[in-house]
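Can't paste images in this forum, so I'm doing it all in text. The chain is below; anyone willing to post the predicted structure tokens underneath?
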Amino acid sequence: MRIILVALAVFTMQLSFSQSNLQSYTPSILFKKGDWEYKTFQNLYTQTKQFDASGSKVDKGLRETFFTSINQFLYGINGQINVGIDVWIKSSNNSADAFSPSTGLTGIGPKIKIAPFKDIPRLSIQSTFLINTSDDPEGVDGSRYFLEWDANLWLNQFFFDLPLNDKSQLFFQQAFWYRMTKNTSSVDNNFLETQTSVFYSYFPTSRWTIYGMSEYFPRHYDLTNENGEAFFSYFIQSGIGIKYQLVPNLIELETLYTNFWKGSEGEGAGETINLGIRVIRQK
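Text version of the structure:
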């Protein structure tokens, strides 16, 4: 056992000298040729309340739970182009007996990430196309609980981070979720959602990151009248998270808690618990 611990300590020291710190690899930064990243992020959302027309939280009379597993791989072609693949798996359930739990592969597909301006390396754009392969994810036949929109997703994200000093930085994301509904969907038309996020990160040491976040997520579609309408509904969530480099410059662990504290009528007033593991390998 002592030999293993010593070997691990030497390996960790070698990594810390040969590679950059993981804190510098925000979502804005691209990987160099041959470098890669694998990240798995587990999201558990649960709610017993929703917002009414006045913005107050009202009891739904049951508990609804949604679990999402997002698995991502990204590979560096060069410092300005990265490619990869995403796999999203979801599960849903509620405390009532009327519906059966639902689980399905709700998204699988390729992505490309570019840094369009060499002079602005902390600005990047990522485009992902996810194919929903799950069977009746909306529970249209009445036997299953709602899992996800029955649609393929074209997700475009704009990333930018701004270092404030050696101990802190800001990160911004603007995302466009364009859902292309299928013939079996209860929604007649394609629709757009937008996601605006801001993160403040503080680095007490080279291995620890503490961050706070807030996100505004509107839907630009009236589901009742089946027509596009800008900012028809929305929710806001905020939270706090921690990242820890289990093996410096190689393996990072992350946990995040968020609360949905504001939303339009019918939106869920729940909370999430999230766990993530990220592995980065550099040449």
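Residues 1-19 have pLDDT under 50 and may be disordered. The chain has one domain: 2-281.
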